[in-house]
């Protein structure tokens, strides 16, 4: 993941917000009232939206949904592209005490419908770009037509205008802080929402909660009096947990959000030049940014001497040491890295840290702790690989509706997502393996069991294994190994037939990039698949298998 944050001139505030102003004095709602003319967001088409406009839209949405009976602790889902529509949903939820779930728009209707139903959403918002799958999802979830709302034209959905037109612009009464509830998963079963208890506090007093993440990287609220504002370039899908959190943090700090519709290297460089970008993050990993921008090295917009980049933050997809070293040499010491999970907790590595410890993902956050254990749950010595467990002080979570899974991934108050790594004597974490079979491709978590469960339904497939193999651009790509049914000839025609059978049942982002065939799957006498034996040849010569 990589983030970019920019700053550019805008009209002076009536009450100047100075850089480094004490926590609690800011927050979007206070800022928007003090300076409604502040350009708080820029859509991918270049349309600018003031803070006053966003505040009014969020307020009207709260009033409208409360009219439908939504109360504290209820949830809403949004199937919307990057831009202010999703931002308004986020802002409304965060001041009305609701859970907001942004949904991955690559998913199919049934997959989306499961999330809408499981989250118990009381309202579902769909952009016309995703009308087809959005409608299938609403039907799959059995959602009341009166609670289906459209940005644009979506058959069977009410225009958002019907919900908000005529509603007051004023702040709603009885405001309380809400939260996002993103969906994540393990290697088996369907995804689960990561749900945290709501604090029940006034949104204006939750500023520290909303801005903690960026403060870890040394970023400050506001801007120097009379100077340029800061802003955040959103280059990746806003349904990612970190993208939502980083963007929200930036907005509450008084920074402008500039949205890209999709990743494009040339457009990214243009925006860096246009908005004097100083900070960015992308969930598709530093590797992809490297490969795509290398070909543009001759462009003066990128190589100009006053390049404004101060923070380029990445995570999720692993980056080979030589590639990151090249980027540091090219961009300078502005590239930060972190390791974290939707569930909470993590590490951070400054450019200086990484240069001293090439390959590290950093040291634990000030309020986070790490524990490395063996298969028996016993802490291992420094330098010894083991399962990585984390916890964050004062922050707890549950997988919504799945107490068994919540407890299964815990150990003495810590949780794990199944990664393997080790700590150095001075506390730096290195990732070395992945216990779980989860694939990270372009920063997206992809779960093999879900793909295997679809492929095995094909009548010509006797057995299947899915895992990640190296991909210099995406980190990993999805590989399927298939044992054909008796009498079925393997080959390209069968591979194509299997892939086409996934149409409408599985998001294309989850389709294997390639399929190999095998006479018989390697299994233990008890039937356990030896997936590592299948995967090993593809990772031969690598220091790690992620």
Automatic annotation (TrEMBL):
One of its GO terms (molecular function) is ligase activity. It comes from Actinomadura keratinilytica. This is Fatty-acid--CoA ligase FadD4. Residues 450-528 form the AMP-binding enzyme C-terminal domain. InterPro entries: AMP-bd_C (IPR025110), AMP-bd_C_sf (IPR045851), AMP-binding_CS (IPR020845), AMP-dep_synth/lig_dom (IPR000873), ANL_N_sf (IPR042099). Residues 29-395 form the AMP-dependent synthetase/ligase domain. Keywords: Ligase.
